[in-house]
């Protein structure tokens, strides 16, 4: 389900120069990084890359969704972490992404943790935006 422009609460603005081998900066100056292809893709690997930036954003967003779900379920996720692994590789259309989300929830039993992660995956804006477009795997939770 999409939102209308009038419903937007915040808009991030970032500009790239020279694509995967250049620089990306936000309009407010809070993020200004050199981007380079990783060595595995023939680049220098000197800077960050779009996959790392996507993984950072996705993991932070998913952690926020997990917190919302945990509050609704009265679950204690204190000390939890979420890791997003973003892979890029060739597919029939050129290149595609694969994401693997894993979470550590030290204060929750494994069955409850799995349920919380699955519910967070349903409400996380990144998960909803990528659903049906890329493969997103949910790893078994760990303590």
UniProtKB/TrEMBL annotation:
InterPro entries: KH_dom-like_a/b, OHR, OsmC/Ohr_fam, OsmC/Ohrsf. SUPFAM superfamilies: OsmC-like. Belongs to the OsmC/Ohr family. NCBIfam families: organ_hyd_perox. This is Organic hydroperoxide resistance protein. It comes from Streptomyces pyxinae.
């Amino acid at each position: 389900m999409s939102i209308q422009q009038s419903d937007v609460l915040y808009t991030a603005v970032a500009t790239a120069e020279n694509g995967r081998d250049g620089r990306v900066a936000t309009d407010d100056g809070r993020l200004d990084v050199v981007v380079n292809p990783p060595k595995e893709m023939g680049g220098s690997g000197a800077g960050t890359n779009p996959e790392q930036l996507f993984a950072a954003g996705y993991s932070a967003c998913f952690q926020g969704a997990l917190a919302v779900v945990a509050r609704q379920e009265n679950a204690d996720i204190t000390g939890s972490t979420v890791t997003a692994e973003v892979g890029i590789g060739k597919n029939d259309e050129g290149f595609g992404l694969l994401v693997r989300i894993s979470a550590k929830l030290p204060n929750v039993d494994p069955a409850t943790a799995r349920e919380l992660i699955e519910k967070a995956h349903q409400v996380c804006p990144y998960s909803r935006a990528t659903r049906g477009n890329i493969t997103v795997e949910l790893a078994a939770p760990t303590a």
